[in-house]
Task: inverse folding
């Protein structure tokens, strides 16, 4: 049963397993539609890349129609991919879903897909160029028929794109499901997903390469940097940029942590000494974000996503509306009036967010009351236990904050879904904005209140420490250990089950079991939560760390473990995600920059409030405030000027991009010149 | 002598003079190089568009070489244009320069030039598309052989581009001038200009059309809007955008002026009532700039410059350096190390600017001293004459400011030239920045001092009025009347001279005299000074107008006359400028936005300082300041959020642009699909 299909091969750059099975797959595509058992006999030549899971009671006619459309030639409107049912459609056990399909394709198909997508690859001269089949031989690492030229992540991304752009022709609905309406041009996969007929579509892990990646990434304790290129090779650019940012952020914090330690050790109780630290904070948070943009551009250029043009964005799977004609494409598709969406945003979402902010403010006030009680209790009879009691309100508050954030997150997702955004990017932006505002308020409101209304620096330091430590512990637990523990239990169950059925000689699972195992793994929901966590940490460090110099040290420590736990999570806990060809960290760059502007304001205020500075203006507090405000405005202006002055893309890459642009202009001119000369020869 | 060459025709859309002389000019190009008299015999068919003026003692060999290169076929590296010497090389008088050359070309050459330049024209379906010869018939207004399709300004722009990209082949220097070095790829025209062999290159006016434009623009008093499309048609997009902005700015000021009048009449002495006016200012200055961006995008889309790709930028004519290889183009060209330029900027230019600012501060202090003397004089013996004396320091200061601005302007130009920028755009940015900072400081420093240091609102109002009125009068004089008067004197002299030689039957000058007349006209130096003036006016209105509500009224009146004087200046005083295909007002948008941010700060401060608001915080001035600062930060944040929220391009144009993008992607895909199907047919 289930012949062990080789899962590494022509896509990955796998020097250990030379692949000889890349040509001649075309035969597979010619098989007639339907569930072919015959195909499995030649499965030694088939490299499954992506898994499609349909619900177990999917109607037979829908399945055979879908498989036919996937296998059909491109000029007939098909995707021209190879597809096979896992385990020949016979479920090993009754409870198992038989409708798992493996998808692969020929090398030639992948290369033409890479050209369609406009993937950028390294050229022989070291520059990055859009891949074309016509001059494929001039690309670096293109040997023979192109085996190993594309990474497996790229192959899977291409297949995903081809599947998502598989469009209905003249079908009015999915066969067998009259309620699942189709219209010419509608993406079939998106309709299957939105109607719940398709459970999921995910790329398969590459066990061998994953092992190597894990080893070089987190299985050995080391102080060297992460293997970003390998991460990109396996998980794609979006993931790699996240890990790059995490690492960059950690290293950027090290100077601050180094300054923080002696501060903490020697001047810990000397609050009026924090001015220098605040000034350092000001400079630091302005510069690191600018430098990150340059570093990120360097990475994105090397990975070929910097100058890649985005394809036309399709509507989200969940988007609904009345059928009409898209004014851009002229295609029939659901339309939803923008006015209605704006009404939903401004009349429901905005009031809801404001209500939540009010609620969060209310919770904060309760916290301050509890804090007051605990302190008065401690002041009456100070014992060891009451000393601990003082910290308890902060801990409870930190836990409540995390819970509120979690609940709010679900509400925000629901609301943003309900706002019915046409594009995934617009959906993401609205979601990020909602979540950010609330999280920012929830996490920092109490600190702002303590710092600027109560002006109690001792309490501020204490609250900051408690919030930071509690949220770190909670995060690490919720993010890595909990899913790991759940996953481990599930895995063990499965392995035990498999062992019961057959004796495993080597530790590797047979393909069928491996696919089922991966299908059951949790889905990685993108880098959203990871960035959000970094954003809040950045806030703790940049806004108030001058009163608690150990904050940077704590964040650095947290980030070091975060690298490991995130890496572990990506490799072992979650399904492999599709790669996401990101050129930058997107809306998060903006969020971090907004935070750094707020940091200028808080740090200037903290400096203005420090006894050290106050001593310079003994007679007039008004003078002090005016000076503080003037200097703050000056720093803000300088910050904006710096943002303009420092180019976002380093000079060498600017030159490379300009060169490419220039060459394409010249080529166009030359082509036109040739045409005119030929024309003038014809018409003398 | 000098046969009257017809100067309107195939380029302009001139319905009065049908043109029948557009084909068959090719013959002209075939004439052998050198100064051909024969060519003039068929000059009835030649439409001169651009004039080249070489110095009168240019060596014969340089002229014949240049003419040969201009006439040579494109595949030989020539410009393939037609060129003729004005008046057959025989100067009518001894003092006149014989080396004026008229340049024209065939219709076909212009159309292919338009394609090279990527000019956007209106398509049959109403969208704007890049012009191509292949589907020229599908463009709107393309009839027959394309007569009247391109405006004369476009034709002249194409010729300018073709002349500027006329490059040296294997010449090592300009014949006859061994010191005028050339290297392969160097633009010949730029070298001639930088060595002073070429005096100027300018496009000719189109007398008929200019008359019509003048009439509809400024010769009749009317309240309707300016004919922006016609201005663009005659002068190009850069000019039309300036006049569009001037008009937009004027209309945007009208509500403020309308509110200002009753304020002035009834509440004039009631300084604590200015809060409402300041709040209005705040909202006004934020919104109008955002709306202008949208309006400007609409104009630029309609004129085809919004989505036009910029061609590769050539080095400026004055740029010098050691010969090396440009890393982008790979061509040999002078290189100048960026470090050296930065050193010049930061070690010379920046200190110089700071020194000038200090000097300006010093002058300001002298002004305040004079003001103090005058006031004390007036207070001792108040008569009518001392009442006038009080205004004299302000008037003197305003005049001194204008003079300082003028001197500084020359210094800034010299310094920026000396900084040796490679690109014209970089030169312009550095120049604008230098001039802006100084002008801002010079014009507004005294007002800031009065408002925030002296806190004397009466003096502020008085200074604002004097500065504004004086600078307006000075500007109108310097800008329009002076050049007009000079020009008129020159014109009269010339016409008298011509009359002496021959009796003019009609009022039109013969071509040769007309060309000489235009060659002697002052050169229009671009929109820089016009925008600068608007920028300062915008500053007066947005920063402090709440204390002097008549400011907006004065600026509106000034702008109405400014439209007329600028229009008059463009049409009658200056040489016709080459059109400049601008898509927006460039760096000025940024300057105006920076000013509106400063306006938020000043208006908030003025509100905070008003007795009305102070009354709300009777006991604590500190509270007042903190609230003012908090509200100011809130407004600034809102401003930035608004900038993000309001899309820069209106929705319908966004859709048009997306449609174009989508269509080109689809066309590419279809082409690729066809290639693959053909390929698969060949290789079965």
Result:
């Amino acid at each position: 049963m289930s012949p062990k299909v080789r899962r590494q091969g022509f896509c990955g750059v796998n020097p250990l397993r030379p692949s000889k099975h890349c040509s001649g797959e075309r035969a597979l595509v010619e098989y007639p539609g339907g569930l072919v058992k015959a195909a499995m006999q030649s499965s030694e030549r088939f490299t499954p890349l992506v898994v499609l899971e349909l619900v177990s009671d999917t109607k037979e006619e829908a399945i055979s129609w879908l498989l036919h459309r996937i296998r059909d030639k491109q000029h007939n409107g098909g995707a021209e991919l190879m597809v096979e049912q896992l385990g020949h459609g016979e479920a090993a056990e009754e409870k198992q879903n038989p409708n798992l399909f493996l998808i692969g394709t020929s090398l030639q198909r992948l290369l033409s897909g890479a050209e369609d997508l406009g993937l950028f690859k390294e050229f022989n001269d070291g520059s990055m160029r859009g891949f074309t089949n016509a001059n494929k031989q001039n690309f670096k690492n293109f040997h023979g028929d192109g085996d190993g030229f594309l990474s497996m992540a790229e192959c899977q991304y291409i297949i995903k794109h081809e599947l998502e752009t598989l469009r209905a022709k003249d079908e009015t609905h999915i066969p067998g499901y009259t309620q699942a309406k189709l219209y010419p041009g509608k993406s079939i996969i998106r309709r299957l997903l939105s109607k719940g007929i398709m459970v999921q579509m995910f790329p398969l892990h590459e066990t061998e390469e994953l092992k190597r990646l894990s080893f070089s990434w987190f299985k050995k304790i080391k102080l060297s940097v992460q293997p970003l290129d390998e991460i990109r090779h396996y998980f794609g650019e979006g993931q790699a940029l996240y890990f790059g940012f995490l690492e960059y952020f950690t290293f950027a914090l090290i100077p601050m942590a180094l300054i923080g330690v002696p501060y903490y050790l020697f001047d810990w109780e000397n609050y009026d000494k924090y001015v220098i630290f605040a000034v350092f904070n000001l400079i630091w948070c302005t510069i690191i974000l600018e430098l990150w943009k340059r570093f990120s551009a360097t990475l994105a250029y090397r990975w070929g996503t910097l100058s890649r043009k985005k394809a036309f964005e399709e509507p989200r799977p969940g988007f609904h509306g009345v059928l009409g004609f898209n004014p851009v494409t002229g295609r029939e598709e659901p339309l939803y009036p923008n006015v209605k969406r704006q009404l939903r945003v401004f009349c429901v979402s905005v009031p809801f967010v404001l209500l939540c902010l009010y609620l969060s403010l209310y919770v904060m006030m309760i916290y301050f009351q509890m804090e007051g009680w605990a302190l008065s209790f401690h002041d009456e009879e100070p014992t060891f236990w009451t000393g601990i009691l003082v910290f308890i309100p902060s801990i409870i508050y930190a836990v409540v904050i995390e819970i509120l954030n979690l609940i709010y997150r679900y509400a925000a997702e629901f609301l943003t879904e309900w706002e019915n955004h046409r594009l995934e990017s617009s959906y993401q932006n609205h979601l990020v904005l909602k979540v950010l505002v609330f999280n920012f308020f929830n996490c920092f409101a109490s600190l702002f209140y303590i710092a600027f209304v109560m002006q109690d620096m001792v309490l501020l330091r204490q609250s900051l420490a408690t919030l930071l430590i509690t949220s770190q512990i909670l995060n690490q637990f919720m993010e890595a250990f909990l899913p790991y523990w759940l996953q481990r239990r599930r895995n063990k169950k499965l392995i035990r089950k498999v062992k019961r059925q057959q004796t495993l000689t080597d530790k590797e699972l047979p393909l069928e079991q491996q696919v089922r195992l991966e299908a059951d793994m949790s889905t990685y929901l993108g880098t959203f939560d990871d960035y959000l966590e970094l954003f809040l940490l950045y806030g703790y460090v940049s806004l108030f760390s001058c009163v608690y110099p150990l904050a940077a040290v704590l964040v650095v420590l947290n980030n070091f473990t975060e690298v490991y736990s995130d890496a572990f999570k990506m490799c072992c806990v979650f399904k492999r995600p599709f790669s996401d060809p990101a050129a930058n960290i997107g809306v998060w760059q903006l969020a971090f920059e907004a935070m750094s502007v707020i940091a200028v304001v808080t740090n200037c205020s903290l400096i203005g409030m420090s006894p050290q500075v106050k001593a310079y203006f003994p007679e007039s507090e008004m003078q002090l405030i005016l000076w503080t405000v003037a200097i703050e405005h000056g720093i803000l202006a300088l910050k904006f000027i710096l943002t303009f002055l420092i180019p976002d893309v380093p000079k060498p890459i600017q030159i490379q991009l300009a060169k490419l642009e220039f060459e394409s202009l010249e080529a166009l001119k030359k082509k036109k010149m040739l045409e005119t000369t030929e024309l003038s020869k014809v018409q003398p």
